[in-house]
């Protein structure tokens, strides 16, 4: 029985201590406290939800200010330092809130700009108290001591360098999204870019251009009188380049690299007809100084066909390779 009572008293003491801890966090000891700012921020956001127009934005703006002030106050009361620096963890949290507030949007709360400026803003928040002497109403500006200046410069410079590296990551990532053909290149000699997955054997956009161009060329040549086919081949350069531009503008419209692809034909004679090579040429940056291109070969031959009147005429027949060939180097000269 005594043991049971002790256990009950122990539970009551635990609940009482837990309640006291929660009360200490949630109930402000005085009106001017960090809890007051947090509650004001929550209240402002609730009110802004029911507001409209520019009033909604103003109330939300004030709510962000209250949240940043309350968080900064709470996290600096008993600061926990980032290992190896004198930067409080609270400054990192406050810096994140300031960055989201300054560079976020209703659609994307966390943007690349938010992440890029986060370290630098956190360092500046850490450095600001070093320029202030005193507390509350007695605070005044001061010049940090020489030994403190060095720490501040190193911290801010290191954070700015980190921001630059993060920005570099987003720049490279954006390049690879807008110019996906770069993924098929090699980065063996790069000091900054490390490939973490197997590169494609051939640029997908170059393959896409030729695969979309092939049926258009086949449609214009197949079952066409042979005399017109030969005339078409004489003007192949202008025709294929024009068709290629249309294919590129239609199928690569979402990529900035659409301006770095060019389509050209190469026509050669055979014993029975012609070989039409459709070339998709990359004119953008490449680790190979001579560049590279993709080729799809089509064999064009004359065949006999019967028209409705029963007369026989010679028409063109075209057969193209199913696969494209990826060739490193400059395309062959036009004849």
Order of helices and strands: HHHHHEEHHHHEEEEE
Tell me about the biggest sheet?
A: 5 strands, antiparallel
> Which structural class fits the helix and strand makeup?
alpha+beta
Figure out the total of helices. 9
Structural write-up:
- With 335 residues, this protein is of the alpha+beta class.
- 51% of the residues lie in helices and 15% in strands.
- It has helices at 2-26, 34-50, 53-75, 89-103, 112-127, 146-178, 204-221, 226-234, 236-251; strands spanning 132-133, 140-141, 261-269, 274-282, 292-306, 312-320, 325-328.
- Strands 3, 4, 5, 6 and 7 form a 5-stranded antiparallel beta sheet that branches. Strands 1-2 form a two-stranded antiparallel sheet.
- α4 (89-103) packs across α5 (112-127) and α5 runs antiparallel to α6 (146-178).
- The longest helix has 33 residues, at 146-178.
- The protein starts with a helix and ends in a 7-residue tail after the last strand.
- The mean pLDDT is 80.
Topology, element by element:
Layout: H1 2-26, H2 34-50, H3 53-75, H4 89-103, H5 112-127, E1 132-133, E2 140-141, H6 146-178, H7 204-221, H8 226-234, H9 236-251, E3 261-269, E4 274-282, E5 292-306, E6 312-320, E7 325-328
Helix pairs in contact: 2-3, 3-4, 4-5, 5-6, 7-9
């Amino acid at each position: 029985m005594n043991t049971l009572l002790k256990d009950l008293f122990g539970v009551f003491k635990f609940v009482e201590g837990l309640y006291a801890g929660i009360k200490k966090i949630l109930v402000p000891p005085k009106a001017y406290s960090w809890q007051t700012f947090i509650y004001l921020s929550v209240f402002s956001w609730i009110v802004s939800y029911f507001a409209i127009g520019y009033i909604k934005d103003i109330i939300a703006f004030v709510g962000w200010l209250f949240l940043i002030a309350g968080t900064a106050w709470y996290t600096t009361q008993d600061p926990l330092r980032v290992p190896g620096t004198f930067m409080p963890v609270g400054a990192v949290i406050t810096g994140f809130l300031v960055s989201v507030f300054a560079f976020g949007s209703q659609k994307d709360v966390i943007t690349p700009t938010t992440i890029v400026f986060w370290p630098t803003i956190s360092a500046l928040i850490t450095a600001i108290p070093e320029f202030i002497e005193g507390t509350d109403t007695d605070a005044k500006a001061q010049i940090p001591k020489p030994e403190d200046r060095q720490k501040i410069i190193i911290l801010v410079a290191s954070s700015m360098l980190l921001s630059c590296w993060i920005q570099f990551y987003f720049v490279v990532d954006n390049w690879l999204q807008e110019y996906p053909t770069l993924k098929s290149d090699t980065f063996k000699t790069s000091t900054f870019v490390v490939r973490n997955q197997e590169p494609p054997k051939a640029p997908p956009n170059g393959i896409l251009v030729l695969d979309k161009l092939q049926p258009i060329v086949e449609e214009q040549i197949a079952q066409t009188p042979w005399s017109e086919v030969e005339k078409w081949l004489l003007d192949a350069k202008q025709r294929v380049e024009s068709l290629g531009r249309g294919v590129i503008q239609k199928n690569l419209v979402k990529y900035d690299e659409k301006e770095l692809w060019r389509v050209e034909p190469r026509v050669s004679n055979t014993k029975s007809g012609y070989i039409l090579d459709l070339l998709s040429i990359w004119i953008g940056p490449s680790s190979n100084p001579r560049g590279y291109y993709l080729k799809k070969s089509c064999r064009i031959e004359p065949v006999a066909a019967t028209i409705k009147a029963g007369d026989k005429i010679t028409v063109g027949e075209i057969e193209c390779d199913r696969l494209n060939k990826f060739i490193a180097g400059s395309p062959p000269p036009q004849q």
